[in-house]
Amino acid sequence: xxxSDIIHNSENRRRRYVNxxxxxxxxxxxxxxxxxxxxxxxxxxxxxxxxxxxxxxxxSDNTSGEEGLSVRTGSCIYPLNVExxxxxxxxxxxxxxxxSDGHADMTEADCPDLICVHSKPxxxxxxSIVCLPHGVTVTVAQDGPEAADTDDYDAVTW
Length: 158
Hints:
Elements: H1 2-41, E1 47-52, E2 56-61, E3 69-72, E4 75-79, E5 84-89, E6 94-100, E7 103-109, H2 115-118, E8 128-131, E9 136-141, H3 145-148
Antiparallel strand pairs: 1-4, 1-9, 2-3, 2-5, 5-6, 6-7, 8-9
């Protein structure tokens, strides 16, 4: 009587273990498929929006040859398809953003934590690079400067 119970319990344990492995594999496969679908459905953006949250900044780039654009708590928009290096200078702060090959990457900053420099290059709509100490946000947008001036309602501000 006891021997059959031991054999029966070990078979149940083994069967449960195999079923747990199958369930785990199915969950990982489903998560991988969902992640792949989401990643493939994201569009690459066409523009980069540089937003200054507080204070005044001088934004200049090496392609236009202009001395620099002074921005006070606003934003500038640059296309992603033109290679350039954008220099964002504030009071005692500097950030350098490189736009090349359809990607934007913060290459240099003099903030203490350098989280913006260590973040990955961005190219898909909605991705962003943020430098909190300097109040600089770089975001990928689909529409260009002509769409940035419209004051339409969106899903959040109804």
